[in-house]
Structures are given as C-alpha cells and as structure tokens.
Amino acid sequence: MLYLIYILTGLVGGVLIGMAGLTAAMVVTPILAGICGWNAYDATTMSLLANVPSAIVTSYTYYKNGNVDMKRGSSVSVSAFVGAVAGSFLGYLFSKVSENGVSYLVILGNLFMALKFLCPEGKKKETGLTDSKKAAKETCKEFMAIAFSFLIGVECGFMGSAGGMMMLMVLTLLLGMNTKLAVGTGSVVMALVALTGAVSHLMIGGKAELLPAVIITVACTLGAVGSARFANRVEEKVMSRCAGVILILVSVVSLVLG
After folding, report:
1. What is the mean pLDDT of each run of 10 residues along the chain (258 residues)?
2. DSSP 3-state of 4
3. CA nearest 54: which of 248, 217, 254?
C-alpha cells in the first residue's frame, strides 16, 4: 500500500510540473511527511530530488516547441540558484519550525494564479509614456523579478515547495510571458533550483531511501513527460484553463492535508 502511495504521489507531482510548471513538492512533501511518516527535512529532500529529472524533461519538451525564453530567464535563474543554497541551510537549522503560515500564503497564491489562468486579461496598451519611461519601467520590473527569484530560491531550498507557482507569477506578471512560455522557462529555472537544493540538503544531512526515491522519481518523471507533451499540443487557452483547474485542486488538497 505504501508503494502505491509513492507511485500515485509521484505521478501527481509530475503532472503539476509538466502542466503548470509547479513543483512536485506541493504534494510530495506533505504526503511523505503527513501520511507516510517521513521526517520533514527528508521529505523535502526527496521532493527536490524528484523535481530535478522531471523539470529537466519538462524543460526539454517545452524547448522543442519553442516555449523557453532564457534570454529573459537567465537573470532570474542565477538569482534563484543563490537563494536555493541559502534556503537549504536555513531549512536545516529550522526544519522543525511550523510552516502553516507560509502554506496558507502559498494556497492564496495558487488561487490567485488559478483566477489569472481561468480569466486571462487582454493586453493593455500603455499610452502617454515616453520611450525612456517605458525603459525605466521595464528595468524596474526586471530588478523586481531578480529580487523575487532570490526569495523563491530561499523558500524552495527551505521548504522544497511552492517555487514553481511563485516563479510563474514572476514570469507572467513581471516579465510578461504567456502561460506556455512561463511554464517552459520556469521549468528550466526550477530544475536548477531543485538540483541546487537537493545537493545542499544531502550534503547537510538530508536522507532519502533508495527504493522509495527511485519509485517516486520515476513516477514523477513519467507524469511530467505525459503532461508536458499534452500541454504543448493544445491551444494556449486550453492549457491555461487546465493549469487553473490544477491550481484550484492543489489548493483544496493542501487545505485538507494541512
């Protein structure tokens, strides 16, 4: 029964990555810690490990379909990488601290992004702004994206969750990417962050049993491959609605498990 839970948890986590650019830790961490009896820090380590190959195959799938923009995503990648290292050390020091408050903020963020995907706004034309003001505004957004990406890295390294959803917000709201481009680019960033966080966790003292780790990681990767291929074959509107529904379901599950 326990191994069936591992398989289902991995598959659901993979769908979150491939379809919505989220992190598998949004379901893997709470299920392993709350249902399977894992230590919280070890559950986070396992979540990060499962995220690495899943995010890589998702990134490759989106890249093949022209839905990755690393020209705009490189700066946030570096920032998130640095934050992930710092967050891993904080996670080890405060692994027993309650995360309920943060979890509720994550749920609110999920619901916000769900509404954005389900009810997309048309692009607003900016009027009355000179070229210099427009450039200054874009520069300000880029700096904000870098700052938020660092915080995302810290949070992901600390808890091993929610980084994907927050990165979607940065890429869509600050850098103006559409859903597919944001998910594809965000997957590249989250692959780097997850790898950094996983290595840091293992070096600091995190553990993951071999057989459960293999089962969860393989299931997660398969779920990511299937959902990423589906997402890139459907229209932008369909993909956005699917992502919105997934975010709502994840929020509900998070409230139940919380």
Report:
1. 89 88 78 82 85 92 91 85 77 53 51 61 56 79 88 73 74 86 88 81 79 93 94 84 76 66
2. helix
3. 217
Q: Which of 219, 177, 157 is nearest to 31 (CA)?
A: 219
Cα-based angle 249, 96, 35 (whole degrees, multiple of 5): 45
Q: Which amino acid is at 2?
A: L
pTM of the full structure: 0.77
| Neighbouring C-alpha atoms within 13 Å toward the C-beta of 152 | 31
Who contacts 100 (Cβ-Cβ below 8 Å, separation ≥6)? Answer: 258
Nearest to 171 by CA among 163, 162, 182: 182
Residues with Cβ < 8 Å from 223, sequence gap 6 or more?
10, 11, 12, 13, 14, 15, 17, 18, 54
Nearest by Cα to 179 from 105, 110, 232, 245: 232
Tell how many helices (H) and how many strands (E) occur in the chain.
10, 0
d(CA 220, CA 136) in angstroms, rounded, equals 41
The structure tokens 């074959």 sit at 233
